[in-house]
Amino acid sequence: MSNKRSFREKYGEDVKGLIAMHEASKLCIEGEDGLDDIGLLSSELLHEWLSRHQNQSEAIYVKNTLQYPLHYGLSRFMDKSIILSGLKANNEWTCLEELAKINSSIVRLMNQNEIIQVSKWWKDLEMAKEQKFAHYQPLKWYMWPMACSTDPSFSEQRIELTKVISLVYVIDDIFDVHGTLDQLTLFTDTAKRWKLTGIEELPDFMKICLSFTYKITNDFAEKVYEKYGLNPIDTLKKSLPKADEYLNNGMISPGVHVVLIHAFFLFDQTQEITKETISILDDDFPNIMYSIAKILRLSDDLEGDKSEDQNGLDGSYLDCYMNEHQDISVEEVRKHVTNMISSAWKCLNQESINPNPIFSLSFTKFCVNIARMVPLMYHYESNPSVTNLQEFVKSLVSGEPLE
Q1: CA distances (Å), origin 37, targets 24, 25, 31, 351, 379
Q2: What is the pTM of this model?
Q3: How many CA atoms lie within 13 A of 183 on its CB side?
Q4: Contact 89, 397 (CB under 8 A)
Q5: How far apart are CA 77 and CA 303, in angstroms?
Q6: Under 8 Å between Cβ of 220 and 226
Q7: Which distant-in-sequence residues (6+ apart) come within 8 Å of 189 by Cβ?
Q8: CB 241 within 8 A of CB 258
Q9: Could you please report the per-residue DSSP string of 275-313?
């Protein structure tokens, strides 16, 4: 770093070394400025290399590395043809490849069975018969736990989390699309009271949703009680977003907190869950959860396009920031948001390296994978992992194995 010119001359053509530096920099935490500098330098040199070697076979791999670092992606859906293009075929590798295919087939069949269970659960609900929600696709909800928790032993957990995620999607649409301000205020007050009384003025679809919310939450609490002897209903109720969180939609994406609180109770614990351990969830928003919510909110604002049928109440951090800084350009605010996402990843890295002792390893891994899942679920352009995810989903529905 002390002599960049000398380094450029000596290592400017060392693609593998530069890629290794670039990938390593994505695992840094706050305060590791040296690793940050290494990441910037390696990125700069890789872009320079690309400008000189556009037609070389390695160029595709370099471009993919710069756009989608390994640490920020889900290995299950990465483009294997790009990652493995530099490896030579040998007997040992062929054996591993065959084992991988067998494992993939087993996991795919397991996922197919789970999506059948989830689809049947949704079809039997009164909610699914309501016109506003009849078009919903449980497969979209199931993709989150399917991709973020791949351990075969967590089949029940994936199914239960899909139910929770369905609740987030339904409530989100009610606030973004279907409800008036007066209706949403009454809806929220009813949810706070946790009683289905005084809701005569609400439309039927909101009444059904409230009943749906209570049933999912109470059933979940009962299962946790059976396992740990402690009723988490108060913590689960507190995790449900407030009206102002939906309408103002500040830095955090409200649904993330709901899903992660439920995931905390689902995954195997390193110690018994007690009132003292869950008080951390009641009183604070743990850093590992906050960093994920921040990554999702900012990434969605940076990359995702708003749906045409939304009424614009959810806003965008980029819009708010530009309103407060009139002299800033679009490019500058995008760079600012990108840096904020990078900082959130540093916080997430720190939390995954030195996790809170109340969080199990399985839960911590799930949290990191939620952040990795963000660009896939929002269908960001040119991301090859999106295509691979879509192909995997097609294989779940059709029952046909992937090539």
Answers
A1: 12, 8, 12, 22, 30
A2: 0.82
A3: 18
A4: no
A5: 20
A6: no
A7: none
A8: yes
A9: HHHHHHHHH---HHHHHHHHHHHHHHHHHPPPPTTS-S-
Residue 79's H or E segment, with its range, is: none
Could you report the per-residue pLDDT of 36-54, keeping only the tens digit for each?
888 888 998 999 888 888 7
Give the count of alpha carbons within 13 A of 100, CB side only: 11
Amino acid at 316: S
How many Å apart are CA 191 and CA 213, to the nearest integer?
9
- Angstrom distances, CA of residue 264 to CA of 257, 259, 326, 345: 10, 9, 42, 20
C-alpha to C-alpha distance for 266 and 260, rounded to whole angstroms: 10
> Which tokens go with 288?
């590992």
Helix axes 254-266 and 204-228, enclosed angle (nearest 10)? 30
Residue 90 — left, alpha, or beta (φ > 0 → left; ψ -120 to 50 → alpha)?
beta
Residue type, 120: K
Tokens of residue 222, six digits:
């009962």
Q: 115 with 139: CB under 8 angstroms?
A: yes
pLDDT tens-place string over residues 76-103: 777 665 555 544 455 566 777 788 788 8
Give the tokens for residue 220: 């979940």
- Residue whose pair of structure tokens reads 């973004």 in the numeric block: 176
